[in-house]
Write a structure and sequence with these properties.
Mean pLDDT: 95
Distance between the termini: 33 Å
CATH superfamily of the largest domain: Zn peptidases
Strand content: 15-25%
CATH architecture of the largest domain: 3-Layer(aba) Sandwich
Structural class: alpha/beta
Radius of gyration: 24 Å
Low-confidence stretches: 1-20
CATH topology of the largest domain: Aminopeptidase
Number of strands: 14
Number of domains: 2
């Protein structure tokens, strides 16, 4: 027993000593300096203010997204980044032109809606039909494949509010599912309760995708109060609605990623980024102008140290994220032969709320590195999370190819109140919360760029 006890004492002391030596003290001190500067800087907020004011909405594949790429290159040059370039790829064009939905009987009135991205148009002059309501997408899936001919399907499924946004993954399935299941059953259109957690009269848009070889029916989302109103009308009897949704789709058009770097001593890459495109209803402030401000601002703080990192820091403004991670997939394809040199990837794409958790996706034997990094971030109010980090939507394609990922998890309690709505505007961002994000990203990025180790398995 004594020998076993001495072994554990020696092992524990050794591990503690090892963890203290994981990060060089000079790097620790520089990371703390970056945190202090970040907390006292408005650089992140100034960047998102510039983007949302000078460009505004930035729908994928449109002229506005092209102006955003021009803005991104200009901003990188203004901030004195290196290796600035746009890397083009193609995307399917889609734009809304007109949308109107109304109850025509028994209680005539207009409803607040937005067409879902990727939806087809209604016929010229619109279409009319009786509403058939389903409380959930699953209830619609369980319905017979006949009996809805000529009807308008309404999926009235609610979304659960959570700090981490986990309710979204469940609720968002109806965005594509409602139209696909309606089409399979002969319905002429579909409506859904918006995928959101608010009670404001703003409808939430978002991308939907049709399954192959089914009837494509138009689909739109109702604001929460209008979904409630429609349901109350249905409780009083049959309801007939008219939909007029007009969209334009030109086929393949150009989009692109905007990239800049802080060159390091090696060609190993530490990637941080956000997506540059947004939906067209608001100005894309929290989704994802905030992420652009956070990651570009953090990298600018690092440049202002006037020190060359060991590894190259790459900042990516991903294009066309909202319509299916098109820029992220293009990046993964372009750099697939050099992804083994990508040390880690992290994306800010969950608004501008304060970071409260540090999640990793490292090899188990490298988790001590995550613990060591967390100790430096902890004074910012950031807890140690789990080892299931996604890294963010645009990191997904490279994470699936083996690149380790980190999620600096933000407080998203109210994120889905504004997500994909006309209410996604700059006033929803708290500059002090954004400063905390910038501070955390700057410290994390600098540490990882100068570590002697990486996060992959040694086996």
């Amino acid at each position: 027993m004594l020998l076993r006890f001495l072994f554990f004492v020696i092992f524990f002391v050794g591990c503690n000593a090892h963890s203290k030596d994981v990060i060089d003290q000079i790097i620790v001190d520089e990371a703390k300096l970056l945190i202090n500067r970040g907390l006292n800087s408005n650089i992140g907020f100034e960047i998102v203010e510039s983007l949302t004011t000078e460009v505004g909405p930035r729908l994928a594949g449109t002229e506005a997204e092209k102006r955003a790429r021009d803005w991104g290159e200009k901003k990188f040059k203004e901030l004195e980044f290196s290796n600035i370039r746009s890397e083009p790829f193609s995307v399917d064009h889609w734009e809304r032109r007109h949308e109107h939905v109304q109850i025509i009987s028994p209680f005539p009135q207009n409803l607040v809606v937005t067409t879902l991205g990727g939806s087809v148009s209604t016929p010229t002059g619109g279409l009319s039909g009786d509403i058939v309501s389903f409380p959930t997408l699953q209830a619609l899936k369980d319905a017979p494949l006949s009996g809805l001919e000529g009807k308008v399907v309404f999926v009235d499924e609610y979304m659960t509010r959570t700090q981490g946004g986990s309710g979204y993954g469940i609720a968002v399935k109806k965005r594509s599912g409602a139209a696909n299941e309606a089409g399979k059953r002969g319905a002429i259109a579909a409506l859904i309760r918006s995928v959101g957690t608010d009670h404001h009269r703003f409808a939430h848009t978002g991308q939907m995708t049709y399954e192959k070889d089914i009837k494509k029916v138009p689909v739109a989302a109702l604001s929460a109060p209008d979904a409630d109103q429609l349901q109350r009308a249905l409780e009083r009897g049959d309801v007939k609605v008219k939909l007029s949704l007009h969209v334009e789709a030109k086929g393949k058009v150009e989009s692109g990623n905007v990239i800049a770097e802080i060159p390091g001593l090696t060609d190993e890459i530490v990637l941080i980024g956000a997506h540059l495109d947004s939906w067209d209803l608001g100005t894309g402030a929290i989704d994802d102008g905030a992420g652009i401000g956070i990651t570009v601002g953090a990298a600018k703080l690092i440049m202002d140290l006037n020190k060359v990192p060991k590894r190259t820091i790459r900042v990516v403004m991903f294009g066309s994220e909202e319509v299916g991670l098109v820029g992220a997939r293009a990046y993964a394809e372009k750099y697939k032969s050099s992804l083994h040199k990508h040390i880690v990837g992290a994306e800010s794409d969950f608004g501008a709320g304060r970071i409260w958790k540090f999640d990793t996706n490292f090899a188990p034997e490298k988790l001590y590195l995550g613990d060591a990094i967390h100790k430096i971030l902890e004074p910012l109010g950031i807890g140690r999370g789990d080892n299931n980090a996604s890294g963010g939507p645009d990191i997904g394609p490279i994470r699936e190819l083996g690149v380790p990922a980190v999620t600096l998890k933000q407080n998203g309690w109210d994120y889905f109140d504004y997500h994909h709505t006309a209410d996604d505007t700059l006033d929803k961002i708290d500059p002090s919360d954004m400063a905390q994000n910038v501070a955390a990203y700057a410290a994390f990025t600098w540490i990882v760029a100068n570590l002697d180790d990486d996060f992959r398995s040694t086996e």
